[in-house]
Specification:
The complex is a heterodimer of chains A (1128) and B (262). Chain A has 50 helices and 11 strands. The longest helix of chain A is centred in the C-terminal third of the chain and has 36 residues. In chain A, helix 13 packs antiparallel against helix 14 and helix 14 crosses helix 15. Among the domains of chain A are: 205 residues, Roll (PH-domain like), CATH 2.30.29.30; 194 residues, Helicase, Ruva Protein, domain 3, CATH 1.10.8; 151 residues, Cyclin A, domain 1. In chain A, a hairpin with a 3-residue loop joins strand 2 and strand 3. In chain A, 55% of the residues lie in helices and 6% in strands. Chain B is of the alpha/beta class and 262 residues long. Chain B has one domain: Rossmann fold, CATH 3.40.50.300. In chain B, strands 1, 2, 3, 4, 5, 6 and 7 form a 7-stranded mixed sheet that branches. In chain B, helix 9 packs across helix 11. At the A-B interface, helix 13, helix 17, helix 19, helix 23 and helix 26 of A face strand 2, strand 3, helix 3 and helix 4 of B.
């Protein structure tokens, strides 16, 4: 018979869908993980994961109260079939409600305690912390069944045990293969060993539970007047001081207390409690005052959080004592208006408790901080619980039971209103239609119900009854009660015409909840049923089809729409609040900036999160969260609508922002090109990372750093949306060339004194080349007569080409003119000579850049400094330096006096000079008039994106145009390893040449600077002492500079001419070289098939092209081995 | 509070949905409480989402029944606001005259309403907590506000200027937002403007009366008992414009002459 029932139970467990919410949801990141469902079901802390799981039968002893014989396991009591789960610190057993064996002695059931019994996430069974288990014995059994007898610490933690103490002991029969059972037991053994560490915590936590006091008999003793060594009752809330709400007699508090006492004695209490159907029934009839807080703690699972760190509450208060915050200000405002009708909250005692709990929580979960309505909820909790208990329960509420309700966007609240409305529409279509027709918005009425858990809507006594069930069965209870309220008042509600009458109908209903539901009934029993009881019946019986699953599904369904609403509101508000500067930009532009700003921020955040996960995975250690409270680990992030959004972007994120805004901010060396990307997905763990590489990689340039510093209010903190908008508003506002010129100048005015020194001028020219290196998108058109350059347009036959070329010329004359018109920072500088030499320098810059034989020139430039015969290619700076060393050189005489390059003659330009120089050149003028501001693409992003899509191919040309054609020797190149594998597009000749010219110009400027630095160094050295070693040193220095070992960047840059778009940074250049090598290799490889090519994506370059398949093959057996080990 | 007289009940009655917006703790709920119950409580329960109250306001030609949605002020509740101002015909945007940031917030709300709320919504900008300023006494002493055609009396402006120059030396004036600044803004945006004290009751009823007068007749729907509910829009649309004596353009005059009978 027993077997048969358990078989039926098992069968039912398979039928009941509520039981199988666990592993069905998987990959999609919207669906909760198995772990989170597991935690949800057993109300476990976030640190727990389902480790082991096995089918089992729970066999409880015959209640000792019903028979006087000793406990006998053969005379087993109730049996429950279900699943036994093991997590790191918990042993959980769950079954479904229908498995009740008819030997229950308690019949406290009321007429509604039917269908919904146990359908709450908890079910029947237990959730026992491993530290509560005192002993586990394996029982001998005839039928080879794995039987474990568990003895708990229930009631045994006290110093002396009461006479006739019987430890809590029950049996679990594991059903499964011998191997599976043993594995489970091994896990259990390990967990138990760990659990022993927590026994002290357990002692502390249990001590705060009123049940311990109740069952210890201390209560009786106290009443007997034997007060000598009687412990004080634990804090069961403000109610102990200020009375509990309601009439205790009417609530039949004493009999409830007796029933609970009996239940606890038979089934264990607090941490060791076993849930049987009576448990659920007892909760349905309302908890007794003094046990209410404790049972809430157990059913909600907040007890387990407290068990984990019993002192967290007091520690938090101590840690932040005396500190101030916005949340604290907000809390303070509401303290005096939280349940003011309750005497406890008219006293300093009650208000103090409320203040401390809310404050502590605002510290521990700063993302939520404080939200109005929390004060009401916490005030209600504090009537029945101690501060620490309320603190942990609040945490469970915010994180799990009411997700997103109190967040900064309150999306959870709004979402659940939508869910509620849709449930009303589904279950009461007539009423719904009427409400819609009367233009009554249901959610405005229902919102406070949910937000403050009916505490503000119903009389307190009834609201607490709802809470009793809510903590046991979860959020669906709020919906069921809400629906029942509407159903019961349906007739009246069909008569209402507006919000006002709607609200007044409900108000009067709530005020009469204690009246008889059937006042005119003949049947006295029926007459005795109150409206509240009726409400409970309707809620849990008529709306029993509203399950946790229903709510989850509905939430999923409406989530996007709700979030979008919130986000569009946030965007609207945010844009509107951007201040006067933002008015210079169009609404579309502001919208585009806003979207992009947050997209980049969230992308960044998401990526960091993934990287963090990856890192942890690699470290192979499961890191427990540092704090046990706070937002859950699997919480969603990445949307404005979900809660507090990051408000500042760091420099890296700023670069990304620029990269999607302006062409010039896109890196020249995409880390991955499209072809390799697809195949890289096949790599484990690379799939996610690859997603980001479809975007343009941001580059890094000094100009961007300057922009960052200029825009940010506080560069340390990062750039806010406001900063970005202000920055762009300056540039993209009404077309104003003077403003743009000044803006650019200010970027380089480091001192803020209206001057830019020599260094700055060079940096400016560098930036001009940097900004223009991708062409001008048609914003600049030179007139034909412009320059002194010998660019022959006819030969190239392409306007664009000549524009770029001419711009280069413009930049060189910019340098020249700057130096020409610069003011000496020291009086007495030789201006005339300066001019002459600057001229010369700039001429050279221009000529060699444009020259047809630039390749050779460049080689000369770096290789040869001795041969002053090839003076054309010599750098002025170099010469200046040389001159100091060797006065024999023919040209040194004049160049020695070059103040432009002589650090002894500091000079600077002012804004007017700069302006004049810019305006003197048609192209530069156009640059500042149109190109510079227009290069920031905002709402015209679409068109930009189109052009940008061709960017990457552009870029590869950049580096490849003059690269040596892949030869057979290049086969070995892939061993270098790199990531730019991919494209060597053909036929990019002209553009490539041009790119080279531009990149060379940039490099040129960098080179000039470098030489100047050297000259400076030299000077310093000279100043130190013109000794005899001087020559030697110079020699060394000289050798060092030109030798093949040092300055590899330069040599590399030259030999692989064209590989670098700009070479200001030696490191960058050498990296680029590697890339280029790889490119060559990749081309070869790509012919051999995609799979192999993908191996090139390994950035570390471990995989030799030929070796890689072998390694992969070698890995495979490894996996197998480890798997075997695991199973053994 | 006071029951309508027999004569009043005969007048056409229409309900007006009014929403209160503004920063936390500027006194939105207190204003409503003063208007509805002529009461002032220091410690009010915070508004969860929004509180709903009603009050009738009797004009010479008709009775307006205000359905007041008093929204929560905490910043994060802002995203709930669209729920409440949906279909509102009037809005009271409240700031605290002792707190400049609250005016900024009020401006944001005005902008939001102008863009998102139903077109033709009547917005009143209200500076509350006048009792904390110097002009509180004067205001209470004289009955000037009612006599003036402009909602913001010129005298008030002068007083403000003085206090600006000599900030709270003698009598602890806590005013931080000059009347002129707010009224200039209100004029620019076409808002009604008042400075009130929910504590003393100064100007409170006037605000609601002014709003009642400013609601265009055409946008009124009759109250619950008066019409058949759904057909109201067409009904009022077809109504002859004889009653539209009171409109936005004349609101100053109307405010001055017509007291609210509630």
């Amino acid at each position: 018979m027993m077997q048969w029932t358990s078989f039926v139970q098992k069968a039912q467990s398979f039928i009941d869908p509520a039981n199988f919410t666990l592993p069905t949801l998987t990959s999609s990141d919207r669906n909760p993980s198995k772990a989170s469902l597991f935690r949800q079901q057993f109300r476990l802390p976030d640190s727990q994961n389902p480790l082991q799981e096995i089918t089992a039968e729970l066999i409880l002893p015959v209640p000792h109260t019903s028979g006087d014989g000793p406990r006998n396991l053969d005379h087993a009591g109730n049996r429950y079939a279900g699943r036994l789960h093991l997590s790191e610190r918990f042993l959980c057993f769950s079954t479904q409600a229908t498995s009740f064996h008819p030997s229950a002695s308690l019949t406290a059931s009321t007429h509604w305690a039917g269908q919904t019994n146990g359908t709450g996430p908890s079910g029947n069974g237990f959730t026992i912390p491993l530290c509560c288990i005192r002993r586990v014995e394996r029982l001998n059994s005839l039928s080879h069944i794995f039987s474990l007898a568990l003895t708990t610490w229930n009631a045994a933690l006290g110093k002396q045990q009461p006479p006739g103490f019987i430890p809590q002991r029950f049996t679990i029969q594991l059903a499964g293969s011998r191997q599976a059972c043993e594995r489970f037991c091994d896990g259990l053994k390990k967990g138990l060993r760990e659990g022993m560490k927590e026994i002290e915590n357990l002692r502390i936590v249990v001590n705060d539970c009123y049940s311990e006091y109740l069952l210890s008999g201390a209560k009786g003793k106290a009443q007997d007047g034997d007060a000598s060594d009687v412990r004080q009752p634990p804090d069961a809330g403000l109610g102990m001081i200020f009375r509990y709400p309601g009439d205790a007699r009417k609530l039949r508090d004493r009999s409830k207390m007796r029933l609970w006492g009996e239940y606890f004695r038979e089934n264990g209490r607090n941490a060791t409690l076993i849930r049987q159907p009576t448990f659920h029934k007892l909760i349905r009839v309302g908890l007794p005052n003094r046990l209410r807080g404790e049972v809430w703690e157990v059913t909600s699972g907040s007890l387990y959080l407290r068990l984990r760190s019993p002192n967290l509450y007091t520690d938090t208060l101590a840690k932040f004592s005396g500190q101030e915050s916005l949340a604290i200000d907000e809390i303070e405002k509401d303290l005096n208006r939280s349940l003011p009708e309750y005497a406890g909250f008219q006293s300093e005692e009650g208000i103090g408790r409320l203040r401390r709990v809310l404050t502590a929580y605002s510290w521990i979960n700063a993302e939520i901080g404080y939200c109005q309505a929390m004060n009401i909820v916490v005030a209600a909790l504090l009537i029945y619980m101690s501060e620490a208990q309320a603190f942990f329960l609040l945490s469970v509420l915010c994180d799990r039971l009411l997700p997103g309700y109190y967040s900064t966007t309150m999306y959870g609240t709004l979402l659940d209103q939508k869910v509620f409305e849709s449930l009303v529409e589904k279950t009461m279509p007539v009423l719904w239609e009427h409400l819609t027709k009367s233009d009554v918005q249901l959610s405005v009425v229902s919102l406070p119900w949910f937000l403050s858990l009916y505490i503000n809507s119903m009389p307190l006594v009834f609201a607490f009854r709802v809470l009793d069930v809510f903590f046991l069965e979860g959020p669906k209870v709020l919906f069921q009660v809400g629906l029942a309220i509407l159903r019961i008042n349906g007739e009246e509600l069909l008569d209402i015409q507006d919000d006002g009458s709607f609200i007044s109908v409900l108000k009067s209903y709530f005020s009469r909840l204690d009246e008889s539901a059937h006042p005119r009934s003949e049947n006295p029993k029926l007459r005795a049923i109150t409206r509240f009881q009726e409400l409970m019946v309707v809620a849990f019986k008529e709306f029993s089809q509203i399950t946790h699953q229903t709510i989850i599904e509905q939430r999923e369904k409406h989530k996007d729409a709700v979030l979008e609403n919130i986000e569009s509101f946030a965007k609207r508000t945010s844009i509107r609040n951007l201040g006067p500067d933002s008015k210079k930009l169009s609404m579309d532009d502001l919208g585009a900036i806003y979207d992009r700003y947050y997209e980049v921020l969230y992308d960044n955040q998401q990526r960091q999160k993934l990287q963090e996960e990856e890192r942890r995975r690699q470290e192979k250690k499961r890191v427990e969260r540092t704090s046990i409270l706070g937002p859950p680990v699997d919480r969603e992030v990445g949307r404005v609508g979900l809660g507090p959004s990051p408000t500042h972007m760091d420099y890296d994120a700023f670069r990304e922002f620029l990269a999607v805004t302006a062409k010039w901010a896109v890196s020249d060396s995409p880390r991955k090109s499209s072809s390799s990307e697809q195949s890289s997905n096949s790599f484990r763990g690379w799939g996610k990372a690859a997603a980001w590489n479809t975007k343009n990689q941001p580059t890094d340039h000094e100009f961007m750093q300057r922009l960052y510093r200029k825009w940010a209010t506080d560069p340390e903190e990062g750039i806010s949306l406001q900063n970005v908008v202000n920055g762009l508003a300056r540039l993209k506002g009404p077309r104003d060339i003077m403003n743009n010129i000044q803006y650019f100048f200010d970027l380089y005015d480091d001192e803020g004194n209206g001057t830019v020194d020599r260094e700055g001028i060079l940096r400016m020219s560098e930036a001009l080349l940097f900004l223009s290196r991708r062409g001008f998108e048609g914003t600049i058109t030179p007139t034909q007569s412009v320059d002194d350059l010998k660019a022959n347009d006819g030969a190239h036959g392409e306007d664009k080409l000549s524009t770029d070329e001419k711009f280069l010329g413009s930049v060189s004359s910019f340098i020249r003119r700057c130096f020409e018109y610069a003011d000496p920072s020291k009086p007495g500088a030789k201006a005339a000579e300066a001019q002459q030499d600057a001229d010369e320098a700039a001429d050279k810059l221009g000529s060699f850049s444009i020259g047809d034989d630039e390749e050779e020139d460049l080689l000369d430039l770096d290789d040869d400094t001795k041969s002053d015969h090839t003076a054309v290619t010599e750098q002025p700076a170099q010469l200046a330096a040389e001159e100091k060393r060797d006065s024999e050189h023919s040209r040194t005489a004049s160049e020695s006096a070059n103040p432009a390059l002589d650090p002894n003659n500091p000079l600077h330009i002012t804004l007017p000079t700069f302006r004049m120089v810019i305006l003197a050149d048609e192209l530069l003028e156009q640059f500042f008039d149109s190109y510079f501001p227009q290069s920031f693409h905002l709402s015209d992003h679409g068109s930009y994106a189109a052009t940008a899509s061709s960017l990457s191919s552009n870029l590869t040309t950049f580096s490849n145009i003059n690269a040596p054609k892949p030869q057979s020797s290049a086969m070995s190149a892939p061993s270098v390893g790199g990531a730019s594998g991919g494209i060597v597009p053909p036929g990019r000749g002209l553009r490539g040449v041009l790119d080279n010219i531009v990149s060379d110009g940039i490099r040129m400027a960098a080179e000039v600077k470098k030489r100047m630095d050297e000259a400076q160094r030299e000077l310093e050295r000279n100043a130190l002492g013109r000794g005899e070693e001087e020559d030697e040193e110079d020699e060394e220095d000289y050798d060092g500079r030109t030798g093949p070992t040092s300055a590899p960047s330069i040599v590399g840059g030259i030999s692989s001419w064209g590989a670098g778009a700009y070479g200001a940074d030696p490191d960058r250049r050498s990296v680029r070289d590697a890339d280029r090598d790889l490119l060559e290799g990749a081309e070869v490889v790509s012919m051999r098939g995609k799979d192999d090519a993908s191996l090139l994506d390994d950035k570390d370059g471990h995989h030799d092209n030929t070796q890689a398949p072998a390694t992969a093959a070698a890995h495979a057996p490894d996996n197998v081995v480890s798997k075997v080990e695991f199973e053994s | 509070m006071s029951e309508s007289t027999g004569a009043n009940t005969a007048k056409p009655s229409s309900s007006v949905k009014l929403v209160l917006l503004g920063e936390a703790a500027v006194g939105k709920s207190s204003l409503v409480l003063r208007f509805v119950n002529n009461d002032f409580q220091e410690n009010k329960e915070p508004t969860i989402g929004a509180a709903f109250l009603t009050q009738k306001c009797s004009l010479p030609t008709r009775t307006i029944k205000f359905e007041i949605w008093d929204t929560a002020g905490q910043e994060r509740f802002a995203s709930l606001a669209p729920m409440y101002y949906r279909n509102a015909q009037a809005a009271l945007v409240v700031y605290d005259v002792t707190k400049p940031s609250s005016l900024t917030k009020a401006k944001h709300w005005v902008a939001e309403l102008q863009r998102q709320a139903s077109p033709g919504i009547v917005i009143a900008l209200v500076g509350n907590k006048l009792d904390l300023t110097n002009d509180a006494n004067e205001a209470a002493g004289e009955a000037q506000a009612e006599g003036e055609h402009e909602p913001s009396p010129a005298g008030g402006d002068e007083a403000t200027e003085e206090t600006q120059e000599e900030p709270d030396v003698s009598n602890g004036d806590a005013r931080k937002v000059p009347t002129r600044e707010a009224s200039a803004y209100a004029e620019e945006e076409g808002l009604l403007f008042f400075e009130t004290s929910a504590k003393t009751g100064h100007n409170v009823v006037d605000v609601f009366t002014a709003i009642a007068n400013a609601i265009p007749e055409s946008s009124l729907k009759s109250g619950r008992g008066a019409g058949a509910g759904t057909g109201q829009t067409s009904l009022s649309g077809g109504r002859p414009a004889e009653d539209s004596r009171v409109n936005l353009g004349e609101r100053g005059a109307a405010t001055a002459k017509e007291g609210c009978a509630c």
